[in-house]
Design a protein that fits this description.
The protein has about 170 residues and is of the alpha/beta class. It contains 7 helices and 5 strands, in the order E-H-E-E-H-E-H-E-H-H-H-H. The chain is globular and about 35 Å long.
């Protein structure tokens, strides 16, 4: 697993830095150093990460980008990677606790491992964080559903069960 780090976050709170210090991930500071053909966790991707991506992840790797996604257009997009979006999950990290889809880098990598069928490795990824177990308490049912899905279409179908429904009232 490789993480591109832009250096935007507080080093004391940066989950990617902690994972790197513990030897769980490789960290790079240039897009050109990312492994070609690897899966990129990308919130703008149209295709969801699923079990069918496991072989690519094993052969080419898994990549996360550690910077604010609001600033993503400024950074551009790394080339030569296979973009996949993570399905609906809720953050457990203290900065974004309870917010859907605003995961830390560690949460995103852990979720990806779980969906790809590496449950033990996913749990191990979050052990260094006090809130790691909480991430699984909040998302275990979702993660299990997504991990059972054979492909992106099935993941997106499973996701529909977990998306909040908007309630609108009509005054007519």
């Amino acid at each position: 697993m490789v993480v591109y780090r832009a250096g935007e976050c507080d080093p004391k709170r940066c989950t990617a830095l902690r994972l790197h210090r513990l030897g769980k991930i490789e960290m790079v500071s240039r897009f050109s150093d990312l492994p070609r053909g690897a899966i990129l966790l990308d919130p703008r991707a149209e295709k969801a990460l699923s079990r069918e991506d496991r072989e690519i992840a094993e052969r080419k790797g898994l990549v996360a980008l550690d910077f604010s996604w609001r600033r993503f257009p400024e950074w551009g997009s790394p080339r030569g990677l296979v973009s996949r979006i993570l399905p609906y999950l809720v953050a457990a990290n203290p900065v974004h606790y309870g917010r859907p889809t605003v995961l830390s880098t560690a949460e995103a990598l852990s979720a990806a491992l779980f969906i790809l069928g590496y449950r033990e490795e996913a749990e191990e990824m979050l052990k260094p964080f006090k809130w790691g177990a909480t991430f699984f308490q909040l998302n275990l049912h979702r993660l299990e559903e997504y991990a059972r899905a054979a492909n992106s279409g099935e993941v997106l179908e499973a996701q529909k069960k977990f998306l909040p429904t908007s309630t609108s009232s009509s005054n007519t």
